[in-house]
Amino acid sequence: MNCLASIIKYLIYIANVVFVICGILIIILGSLMIGNLGEFKSLDEAFNVEALPIIIIVLGCIIFVISFFGCCGAIRESSCCMTTYAVLMLIMFCLQIALVIWVFVKRADFLKTMGDVVDTAWKENNSNKNVPMDALQISFKCCGKNNYEDYLMAGNKVPISCCGSLEIKECPEDVYKTKPGCKDEFVGFWSTNMNIIRYAGIAVAGIELAVFTIACCLASSMRNSRRNDIY
To answer: If 118 and its partner were Cys, which of 18, 53, 177, 183 is the partner (CB 3.0–4.6 Å)?
Structure first.
């Protein structure tokens, strides 16, 4: 390969190291999103709640694997590996764009659904459903659907989970009065993470498109170099 091709090879390698890190960070983001849901799995809506974090984790794993493949292809100077990598990167770019478009188009509907999930948790807040509000209140440091007064208006005592734990005997009034409502906190949690997905996804997709173009050029250069060596 010529000097320019060698420079591009190492740029591809560095870019894929960055992608490997991005893939790990995306996996961590999805894991944190699932972790913050606590024991919310007791509700029938749990699949809808966990679907987006699972998709994000799968996407992060795919990015990690493809990027690792790209690093090996660049270092080994294999035109076959680099062509395969370019095709995989194009597929990855399309999947990334599809996810970003879905988040932009469905964001409002998705957030409304998440608000409805909290409404369902409030209605089904009993031992038969493993008291889903306890899981919400501990995970998101909130109290009640809108605030602590929801319990008082329903003729119930404010639960100790409003203090963020089930291991205490009583939740002090000066603590639970400062807690925000779970509906706002839960919807806000998803809103923040969807914003991260939207704008970070656009940036990563742009880089992926650039890397795809460069990988195609590098694969062509490798084939030409191999052909020149033969003849």
So the answer is: 183
